[in-house]
Amino acid sequence: MTIWNLLKDPPARYRTKPFWSWNDDLNKRELLRQIEEMHEAGIGGFFIHARGGLTVPYMGEQWMELIGFCIEKSQELGMEVWLYDENGWPSGYADGKLPALGHSYQQKRLSYEWAPFRQEEKMTIATYIQIEDRLHLLDQDDPRRPDFRVYYEVNPYYIDTLSKHVVSTFITMVYDAYWLRLGTKYGSAIKGIFTDEPQFGRGELPWSLELANVFESRCGYSLFEALPELFLETDNCRKTRHDYWSCVTTMFTEAYAKQVGAWCGERGWMSVGHVVDEQTLMSQVTSVGDPLCFYEHLHIPGCDWLGRSVGEDPLVPKQVSSVVRQLGKKQAMTESYGCSGWNISFQDLKRIGEWQFVHGMNLLCQHLQAYTLRGLRKRDYPPSLFYQQPWWEHYHHFNDYFARLSMLLVEGTRQAEVLLLHPISTAWVEQTGADSARIEPYHQSFAQLSRWLCQSFIEHDYGSEGMLERHGHVDGGRFVVGEASYSVVVIPPSVTLSSRTVQLLHQFILQGGMLIALEPYPRLIDGEENEDINRLIHAALKPTNTRLSIAKLISGKVPPSISVNDRWGNPIASDMVNVQTLKLGDSFLYYLVNSGDEAYSNTEITIHQKGTLSRIDLQSGDFKSVNQKTVDGGTQVVLTLYPAQSYMFRLAQSDVQCYSDPIKRLQTHLTDSHIHHLDNQWKIEEMDVNSITLDTCRYRVENGEWSTEMPLIFIQEKLLQIGSPVHMELEFSVNLAFEPTEEQKLYLVVENPEKMQIVVNGNQVESTSCGWWRDISFQKIDIGGYLTSGLNRIRLHQYFWNTPETYAAMTRASQFESEANKLTLDTEIESIYIIGDFAVNSQSGYVDDTRGVKYTDGPFVLADALQVCSLEEGLISQGLPFFAGSIRVAQTVQIQLDDGVSWYWDFASPPDATVTRLRINGADTDVFLWEPFVSNITEYLEPGENLIELELTGSCRNLLGPHHHIKGEPIKVGPDSFKDKPGWTDKDLEPNTSIYQNRYAFVPFGLSAAPRMICIPE
Hints:
By secondary structure, this protein is α+β, with helices and mostly antiparallel strands. 24% of the residues lie in helices and 30% in strands. It contains 21 helices and 60 strands. The protein has a nine-stranded parallel sheet. Strands 38, 39, 40, 42, 43, 46, 48 and 51 form an eight-stranded mixed sheet that branches. It has a six-stranded antiparallel sheet with strand order 15-27-28-34-30-31, covered by helices on one side.
């Protein structure tokens, strides 16, 4: 069986493996049902991830027993089970048990102050007296009054990750516990363990009670004497900083990554995960030192990609993929889509995934799938890409696509001839205390240089100097790192290089390798002045710092494997258009990706090698023929490169059996005679139940005075501030513009109905669920006979309480993220929903902003359900502002069919729907998830009258929000996005900005432009 034969149905190994959030009171039957849902959706496995809201004791007997049931179910279905090593994140604190062991186990960070001293003396590390312009270390019994002191602060909620003993204790508490309970019974049925965002600090300098001894052993001098140089500018400060950060990085890597990787490897499990703060040199220094050294010890290194956007520079994925290629690790996993919000589309999912994949990632871990959305869980860095979504039945298309893509990228061998040195050591020597401002220019230069290489289709890896110490050598004029070798090495703008790097580069030049240096050139070796660095730079080639001059120089040595020109013959040089070349068997693969919003019609794609070219259709697994021609010793094809579209080309030396490609490139200049315009009005054939979210109400406690109407999320905060159990009442109001009939189904949807008394218009309603809607915690209560035309009042009577332990946990949660990320409340009050057959109208109308978001002040009125609609006007303003489901509409068209003419369906611009399905004359023609939104419909049409049906499926965004964010629709969404003050997902806003706006914001649902049917003569 070859890779090509597996394209139709790739094995589980290559399939997506999401975080499965275990976040509530877990039920065996429900867990097994959710596994079946994943299997049906084409998911290959999952990471069992404890998160906030969990009520089953973490790592307890019931926890282990439920994991066992899930392993057995997954074995039955051929899926993979992966564990996750923490309750929340960052990994390492063992659900709080490890830092609770005491001071020596807890995270520490350095700080300093000049006299007079204000901080507690007991944390002092060293004191100094100033003589002239130098600080001198004082002995403990020196009677002189110090001028300067260095001390450390303690974070009691996280651990000292520089200590092998501390991390070993973490491994014992979690990893050994899993192995003893599950490993001996299930063995290889568990594939491995994910470790998430381990760190030694965030923006500050780490300290460990073991650091000074390790430093002196490694560096040969006392760290105590040199500590001020970490904060102050002195003659020798860069040497000290280089040695300090090198020592810290080594301690962290060996204590954490190396021990975790070795533990897993010894038992046949795989270690997988990523570190924190991967995005910039500035953040890497004070969090992990050198992320590439950490990746070295994981079996499947990974990265994190948050939000609904892609990056301009490729640093995050390329750092991981470089290590994977160099050390022959095969797989590189990305944890993606956290914070991207409920409205992320399939096109966005594909765009974000493929932007990372073209830069070397090849395995997808979706963040996340929530067991339930009860309470705060629905705001846990949404979305939940799971059964709650209206589009869930179509998700298998996405998972099959990425399984095929992953398999090709994993099994292929990436081709890259250029090594770009990673300048993290420059960041080390330029870090001054917590101030990283001097690093910024070097980060920007490095990122820009990598962007220029990508824009010129010069494929390259990054070289970690720490890894070069262990895996670098020169052989036959090639610079070798592990299993990869390069003919060109580029030194980015830098301050320092390591002595080993300089030694290797001298050898490289002597053997005929091409070394390129870009100014400002490094002037130090290991943080010290050394004439040898000048000799190296003198021998290097030094082009001007422009994309064209660098590309011209490198291309003279290693020409790009592919050229991509626009319709006018100009090279496309964009951050959003990238290529990856691979060797797979006797073929070459060329993976071309457009991650941007611009379409490139009539794009000339030239592969500088001869052979038979075909296109691998990743949606079907078929090989499709392309209209190729030979040019200048290469192979050329002309195609349209749509936004967020990719092509996987296969170049073989022998013929490949292909299907003809049915999608014809539409002409850009069409006359009215080619276009059949559809009617603006559509008849509604079928629709899921409509909904309204009630997120404001009045409240009172202990039969006191009623409040004014206010947002529920603020009422929750006020009730928590009381600090003791109280009886509360919530009163919601809803207006009906019709009189419900006896047979008309209307439901109230609430969470935990068994804990409340429900009164509608003065009538007590039985709190008995008649099934769930959207999420297993959203329980339906039949209120069809209780609502009436006009104003209706719904009262919920409930006891609001939280244990003293919960209040203590809330206090801890405000101190450090590890505690916040596992927080579980005993009582939560949430929005309620009414669902049924009705329309929801706003009495104040709607206003559009420039990004398509629709705003309204309300209030809302329930009216008679729609019978017809105009899709191009948008369905929000036609009664569906809170809708989370599918709607099927229809119209008939008259068509005159002629021989020799092909008909195409064209949406003209992407629909405002997550999924759009087209049916013609009762036959399914296409499901549209992403570009191109074009389909050949010739075979489905009949002479005369034709029935056209469209089914539009939305997301949970307009149901769950955030409805009131100042940005309308933020592209990074976290728990604070629903409150009133900015959290880290809104760090671009001023800290005192009021996020919460009284008006409602909805994203569009419908069609962004009128669809059309186009006839084109063959």
